Amino acid sequence: MSLIDSISLPRNIRLPRVDGLVPWIVPLAIIAIWQIACVTGFVPTRVLPAPSDVALAGWKLLLSGELVRNIWVSFWRASIGFLIGGSIGFAFGLANGLSQLSAKLTDTTLQMVRNVPHLALIPLVILWFGIDESAKLFLVALGVFFPIYLNTLHGIRTVDPQLIEMGRIYGMTDGELFRRVIFPGALPSIFVGIRFALGIMWLTLIVAETIAASSGLGYMAMQAREFMLIDVVVLSILIYALLGKLADSASRVLERLTLSWHPAFQKR
Amino acid sequence: MIRNTGNHTQTALRTSLPETELASRANFAPHARVVREERPAQITGLPLSIRGLRKSFGDNEVLRGIDLHIPAGQFVAIVGKSGCGKSTLLRLIAGLEKIDAGSISFGQDFQPRDIQPEDIRVMFQEPRLLPWARVLANVEVGLGRDRASKYAHARAEKALTEVGLADKRDQWPSVLSGGQKQRVALGRALVSRPRVLAFDEPLGALDALTRISMQRLLERVWRDQGFTAILVTHDVAEAVALADRVLVIEEGRIAHDLVVNAGRPRQRGSAELAGLEGSILSHLLSADDRT
Ligand SMILES: Nc1ncnc2c1ncn2[C@@H]1O[C@H](COP(=O)(O)OP(=O)(O)OP(=O)(O)O)[C@@H](O)[C@H]1O
Ligand SMILES: [Mg+2]
Question: Is residue B71 within 6 Å of ligand 1 at its C-beta?
Fold first, then answer.
């Protein structure tokens, strides 16, 4: 009986607007359960504040301007650090992918440095830079450098040699060959690097800001911990998660735009 | 039309040709007339002379002295067993490998001419299209240095129309079928109006039906444009269906040089072609037995 029922159900009737909401069902359900658990006292609010309390704390901080200021500071550090580390990594990836000499000269060194976890450098970085902005930027840039470097290099090295030969046969100059064949061919891999780097970027920043900072989201969370403001602590964590998701979505949009030729990104 | 191969060229070459070459060349002259009638009015192709061409990779002597003259606009097929050096010969002609000894010259023997890179095009078994460029842009790549000219679009569109894919101009290569991709590759090779077009098993990866329609297309564009065509193929039936002349390579040399004098358009599977195909196959197989 039930088998027949499930087969005869009209499957392809789908409301398109509902479709877009599906990924949000689980997070919303979790928040709802969380709220209920707190209100009924199942979870003591000293351990975990109710979502409504977190929202309220966020609203207060928003009104005082503190929230916006801290988010802005963190966002600024993340982007500048990402830009610096990312462009250096990209430049090295290009150079070592395109030139044997450059690869011989620097690749081994870079591979060795890569094996040092960059967060292990925090004590040294504090000694060097204090808790200055440059300390955070340095750490973020260092963390972002490697995924971008490695994936750019890998992307360039794995461009189909038959296509490169084709480009040469058809008289492409070096510049044209790079622009028309090598770079587009390396792009999917570069995007993998960017997505990795974005994750590392937030991770580095959270750690750096909680340890050595006088502003930013991590600092806000640490301050709140001192005053036992657990709702603000949870708020900071949630904002970090949200910003991470935002960065990831932005890179996905960019990917979709530039890789529209790729079978994986074509609408079926 | 065969006028391009002036008498002195022929005599000059004869002295350097092996026995078998001479025999088939003697055959060639009377049949030439038949072929001529099927030819387009203008032949834009370049004649090609290869002298004592040698090529080895390390200890592996692949080509051990190839002597060959191809008159302008001729359609030549090259067959031979796998690994005998067909692709190597083609790559040498296209300038993709360095010559060890001997020479390859285009144009008349006594007045070798400078050729432009756009004059010689190669088509491979793989279409080698840029996946990130639309079909039309892929064809434009074939224009070489003229890519930037304002006629690039128009010329590419014309080439696409010639290969029957004008309606696919804005598609990504990934949505095309194997045969369509190969047609785009052909359009890209044709767009610069080459004078020599070399094919390295261009239809090797296609199914039987697509193959036949591609063969017809190749024959049609060759007749329309009059380039010199050099086709490497595994398929002896394809060789005799398309070519004016079939070369069999064995042990690094041209072992047989056969003229196909069936008129065009050719009747696929006709007794004449089948007989020729059979004799080429028996050459190939007897060579195989000897080794
Ligand atoms: N770049 C290279 N380096 C070393 N050896 C090579 C190279 N290219 C070809 N060869 C060798 O030269 C010989 C002839 O190769 P080639 O590709 O010309 O054969 P082919 O006749 O085209 O064979 P097939 O019909 O299988 O395509 C082979 O033994 C091959 O191993
Ligand atoms: Mg080959």
Answer: no
